[in-house]
Amino acid sequence: MSDTVSVVTALDPLDLAALLCSRVCHDLISPVGAVVNGMEVLEDTSDESTKTFALDLIKKSANQASARLQFCRLAFGAAGSAGATIDLGDAESVARGFIEDDKMKLGWGFARVLLPKNRVKLLLNLLLLTSQMIPRGGTLDVAPIGEGDTMGFRLIATGPHARFQAATPHLVTGEGGEHPVDAHGIQPFYTGLLARACGLKVEMGQDADTVTVTAQ
Predict the structure, then answer these.
(1) Predicted pLDDT of residue 94
(2) CATH number of the domain residue 77 falls in
(3) Which of 18, 49, 55, 163 has its CA 20 to 30 A from that of 170?
């Protein structure tokens, strides 16, 4: 019989807040920086084709920054008062804006219903976490497990070299041990906090170029 006891990692609230802020800033630095670069090009050139390129860059990057802000507001923000619910239609809109691009397609298997905010925040964080498991793009399909306020989720990511980091399951369960909760680990750790708040257990598995993540 093993004497090993699993200990869930405790994180100081100030550290949690700081690391989550760092995570949000990480998502915004790239598009906001591209907007700044585009503005500098506009100021430094008189060539019309270069100006057109700069304006296209500014427009694309500003739209990307807006999409990321809207996603982060629901995924990490307060999103209403205690006991609030969130429309899954709104969740789909911000998820598509954040995740879908030329390489990544999202399959959404939910009806438009209201769910408790923490459950929707969990869904969005699971989408973010799973999308990172197909770094070269592919398809990400998400569907409900069960229904109503006790609904769980199944996410299937398929793409070249799909995989999850060895530390990810441990960070999600909060039993990271040798895996520190740093700026890279805060998002899976926070996903686990949300899952436990919802009374759900997150599990991950892989088969060739497909990764499956469930919360139930």
Answers:
(1) 96
(2) 3.30.565.10
(3) 18
